[in-house]
Amino acid sequence: MARVAVVGVGAIGGVLAALLETTGLHEITLCTRRAVEPLTVKTPEGAVTVKARNLTDPKQAGAVDWVLVATKTYDAAGAGEWLRGLAKDGAVVAVVQNGVEHRERLAPYVEEERIVPVVIDCPVERQADGTVVQRGKVTMKVEEGPLGAEFKELFRGSKVEIELVGDFKTAAWRKLCTNAAGAINALTMKPAGVLHDEALGRLALEMVAECVAVGRAEGARLDDSVGQQVLDMYRGQPRDSVNSLLADRMAGRRMETDARNGVIVRLGEKHGIATPLNRMAVAVLEAGNRDEGSGVRGRP
Ligand SMILES: NC(=O)c1ccc[n+]([C@@H]2O[C@H](COP(=O)([O-])OP(=O)(O)OC[C@H]3O[C@@H](n4cnc5c(N)ncnc54)[C@H](OP(=O)(O)O)[C@@H]3O)[C@@H](O)[C@H]2O)c1
What is the Cα–Cα distance from 256 to 144, expressed in whole angstroms? Predict the structure, then answer.
């Protein structure tokens, strides 16, 4: 049994809480900004109701053994507030987010040795009534090592595939390559099918090539076929598949533009690598992240 807190109970936080619940082993705390009704997660195997304590104020947080951070990447400072109480006795902090800067984001709030970066793949969304709907299987990649192994152990008995990877950097950059091209969906406001267009397909390959070049400069092992793999993946999806960047833009929510494309531009600058296509995507989408006085964020 472990005391596990989930910070940020949206789509991914909900899935993580449901997985923990199905182990039947842990004492779960849900750390949210607003009180949650009993959390229900509709999984492909059936609905799971999470029996947990709910805290809405970081000042109420006492020490736990594990913290799973599942806020959006831009909410790291808010997650950090929770860590003061939750991690005061040495909790391990698993950062379950997109991007390649898991450690950097949380390092201001907890010792780096206690941070475990995790990449998750799972089609899931949170509905307006707070119900979380998981539409497919959950897979996670976690850095190999004692903490990675303990992380995997937390979920023993639940319906998740967790892979311990020796080269987490490559795993995170490989996912970033997929996410980088996903900006095209948010830019066009169209789901996966739009990538069947020849010109947009070429654009996707070129955006991924920028990501591959920067990732390699950072030490990730990415081969030349990644772009085509990413494009094939999008073209193999149902044409109406909506990625989370597009979903956020359509809903007028803030987008994770910086963690998905901005990081390619920033680290490209560090290595003297030009990234004009990702730079363009960031500039346009960031304008969507501002409401420019219209009161409407995200929509063109
Ligand atoms: N959804 C997917 O299919 C998917 C797949 C793979 C990876 N990811 C990645 O997983 C991460 C989480 O994404 P998501 O889709 O789960 O986002 P989400 O549904 O927006 O959930 C994020 C949650 O964090 C909460 N939050 C923000 N600041 C907080 C704070 N200070 N204290 C407590 N809670 C706070 C939000 O609360 P409010 O409700 O108050 O806003 C929201 O419930 C992202 O990095 C995303 O890119 C998502």
Answer: 27
